[in-house]
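seq:
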Amino acid sequence: MSIRLIEILISSLPKILLPGLIYTIPLTLISFALGFFIAVFVAIIRIVNIKVLSQICRFYVWVFRGTPLLVQLFIIFYGLPGVGVNIEAIPSAIIAFSLNVGAYASETIRGSILAIPKSQTEGAVSCGLTTGQTMAHIILPQAVKNCIPALFNTFISLVKDTSLAANITITEMFMATQRIVAVTYEPLALYIEVAFIYLIFCTALTYLQKKVESNLSRYKVSTKGKTQKQ
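struct:
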């Protein structure tokens, strides 16, 4: 490795990391948070099976799971202006990422809710809890706990998917790298560098996932809606 290449890699590191702190991480956190709430809402609506809303949710999940995320980004950012709806790049990315996460995570959460034994609901009712209280205090806590690994996988995938935001002019880590490559003409080394940064981010999240799972495994949810240590 030449001295020039080493200097390029060292000087480019903060230029890549800064967009990561400004765009990549916030995009991931905001989109996942919104996507999670969408997922919970959609999962509950589909389980309760309210006719019109349930059909709308099924259609939403079908569309967003059946089309590429990049196409969804392009439709929102480049396509909607054609019908008079103009959305800035960052809101467009958040909308696309959130809806995509919501579609996938809703199936994960729905499956986890359906996997909870009916005896849990019956036990909660016998303790005097309403349907809403049962869902909020008994069913959802257990369902979310059971699907933590899958949700973390979705979150880690979203970190990598934010690189697609470069296609709608957001200067996140990947676009920052592309701009440096255009000046230095060192694509291999620089793309390996940004890949390594993504790898570090995802490795840290994987470690966090293991810690969270380890901590959650110590607790169980009682039929009185309280978390107990095992």
